[in-house]
Amino acid sequence: xxxxxxxxxxxxxxxxxxxxxxxxxxxxxxxxxxxxxxxxxxxxxxxxxxxxxxxxxxxxxxxxxxxxxxxxxxxxxxxxxxxxxxxxxxxxxxxxxxxxxxxxxxxxxxxxxxxxxxxxxxxxxxxxxxxxxxxxxxxxxxxxxxxxxxxxxxxxxxxxxxxxxxxxxxxxxxxxxxxxxxxxxxxxxxxxx
Length: 193
Known about the structure:
- Pfam families: GATase.
- Its EC number is 2.6.1.85, 4.1.3.27.
- It comes from Brachybacterium nesterenkovii.
- GO terms for molecular function: 4-amino-4-deoxychorismate synthase activity; anthranilate synthase activity.
- This is Anthranilate synthase, amidotransferase component @ Para-aminobenzoate synthase, amidotransferase component.
- This protein has 193 residues and is α/β, with parallel strands linked by helices.
- The protein has a single domain (2-191), classed as 3-Layer(aba) Sandwich (Rossmann fold), CATH 3.40.50.880.
- The protein contains five helices and nine strands.
- The protein has helices at 13-22, 36-43, 62-69, 80-88, 180-191, and strands at 2-7, 26-31, 47-50, 75-78, 93-109, 122-133, 142-148, 154-159, 164-167.
- Helix 1 (13-22) links the parallel strand 1 (2-7) and strand 2 (26-31).
- Helix 3 crosses helix 4.
- The protein is globular and about 45 Å long.
- The relative contact order is 0.18.
- The mean pLDDT is 96.
């Protein structure tokens, strides 16, 4: 299987790339730059990962990728990728009341999709974000799959019909134990069921 990982100039995206290698994925990492739609179509991957990074999703180039590839490729979003998927479907992304950079939280999840390999319905995760999806603006096409127990923020979303799922936290962080299992869960659910 092949995957394109979009790097939005993030310091730790190489760890996600390493996780994908551990899953035996043929991976290509592209910087979030203009012209990626044509390049991704050329590469013809089996799925797309929208990586984390700084800034607002409307400035990242991720939203355009979601709009173009939704329904054509499975898409996994991480942090900024989650915000971009939400934005592409009409959700509002705004500053969080509490900035969560390098902080751990317990989340509760639905046990499906990326979480299908989880032994329970909660897990510890590490968060690096100052933006959130405003829950009141969640579009009908998307469902909440997980939320943090400490502040109630959305930590995961999934498209109700298309193979699109995203997490707000960082699976590549050392504080997110066995984060690779979330990528494996995405692969198992959407790429090679």
